[in-house]
Amino acid sequence: MTKVISIFNQAGGVAKTTTAQNLGYQLSLHSHRVLLVDIDPQASLTTFMGLEPADLDKTIYDALVAEDDQPMPIHRDVNGMDLLPANILLANAEQELIFTELREFRLQEVLAPLLDSYDFILIDCPPSLGILSQISLVASTHVLVPIQCQFKALKGTDSLLKTVARVQRKLNRSLKIAGFLPTMYSANNSLDQRTLESIREQLTAIGTVFPPLPRATAMAEAAEYGKPLALCPGKNSAILHLFDEIANAMEKM
């Protein structure tokens, strides 16, 4: 069965896009067919993959609001993965979907014809608890939560978990938590160390807490190159090993 994984946190700047791109690439190295879905109007994933959002004629926005079947605007074999891109027009979908019948299931309907073509579909969610995040969770089999190693970020996890629980209760009973990925971690920062320990204490009972993703200039540089970290100069072997560990965990779910 295809695993559809939402990379979800209502906070911005927690490495959702970095996680989606690099986890997807590691899964592709394991010979899996991977589709990345950018459902954030900021289109960071689209940019990270080397595309210019403003130049795109068709994006996931068109697939979501179309009233009839149209060719899916998928970009094939981008760094070994396929990409369903986004641009700023996706911001309009928040309002337009309000009037769509069974709007909560719209992304699920869009992805349904693609399930036989992929082993993993990774959805890069926007930093909000709005309709775009909701339809992503409804369309998913699992949710992976990057969480910044800061106390404020940990406190915000309550709202995130309530959103996931509400979707599980009413719209997608089969949705499972794939785990939590602590991010932006500095081993030399005592506050980060304490927050990481709190994340482990509070969230391990809910889902796997993966080893932390460290702060690293290599990640920012990879975004500038428009490629996964593994394809960039100066790649960080420790970070690549972490994403490979997460990929192995996703395979076993």
From TrEMBL:
It comes from the Bacteria. It comes from Nostoc parmelioides FACHB-3921. PANTHER family: P-LOOP CONTAINING NUCLEOSIDE TRIPHOSPHATE HYDROLASE, PARA FAMILY PROTEIN CT_582. Residues 2-177 form the AAA domain. It holds the Pfam family AAA_31. This is ParA family protein. Signal peptide: none annotated. CDD domains: ParAB_family (cd02042).
